[in-house]
Design brief:
This protein is of the alpha/beta class. 34% of the residues lie in helices and 13% in strands. It is built from five helices and seven strands, in the order αβαβαββββαβα. It has helices spanning 4-16, 31-45, 57-65, 102-110, 142-151; strands at 24-27, 51-54, 69-70, 80-83, 87-88, 94-95, 115-117. The strands form two sheets. The chain has a five-stranded parallel sheet, sandwiched between helices. Strands 5-6 form a two-stranded antiparallel sheet. β5 (87-88) and β6 (94-95) form a beta hairpin. α1 packs across α2 (31-45).
Length: 167
């Protein structure tokens, strides 16, 4: 059986086959998406012209390093978004956001004509959310959001703690 790193690279390389010159791309987050962005950067250095909208600052940095034009605003739908997943269930439903980029990931996915997930078999689960479920909130009225979660029977925790929350 192939090791996990090789499977991630194989998934990223397969996604790279979908890229055409001139595309406007969503550039996801996570380990497999990072491999994809690095490989895409190699193609850009060979003359491929693409622009990317990153889902995280890490993805933006990798894209810029690879010579990919990074955008934070678009005037048309993305041609394609490539992103990873935290969990995938048998019906191909996804859980994303544990890396802290949930809102940006959702906005990029919703802006894309086509959304492709790059993942290896370690992401397959029988049921989504058996561990931690990410919920990204803004500082404004966040205590109200916490109360609403509690009313649904959810025990919540601020990533980084209330004194220094993850932003």
């Amino acid at each position: 059986m192939a090791d996990q790193a090789a499977l991630k690279e194989a998934a990223a390389r397969r996604a790279l086959d979908l890229i055409e010159d001139g595309m406007l791309l969503g550039l996801g987050s996570g380990t497999t998406a990072s491999i994809f962005i690095r490989l895409l950067g190699e193609r850009v250095k060979q003359g491929l012209r693409v622009q990317g909208v990153p889902t995280s600052s890490g993805s933006a940095h990798l894209a810029a390093e690879g010579g990919i034009t990074v955008l934070n605003s678009i005037d048309r739908p993305l041609d394609l978004a490539i992103d990873g997943a935290d969990e995938i269930d048998p019906a191909l439903n996804l859980l994303k956001g544990r890396g802290g980029a949930l809102v940006r990931e959702k906005l990029v996915a919703a802006s894309a004509r086509r959304f492709v997930v790059v993942a290896d078999s370690s992401k397959l689960v029988d049921q989504l959310g058996t561990g931690v479920l990410p919920v990204e909130v803004i500082p404004f009225l966040w205590h109200e959001t916490a109360r609403r979660l509690e009313s649904m029977g959810v025990r919540w925790q601020v990533r980084g703690g209330e004194e220094s929350p993850f932003v």
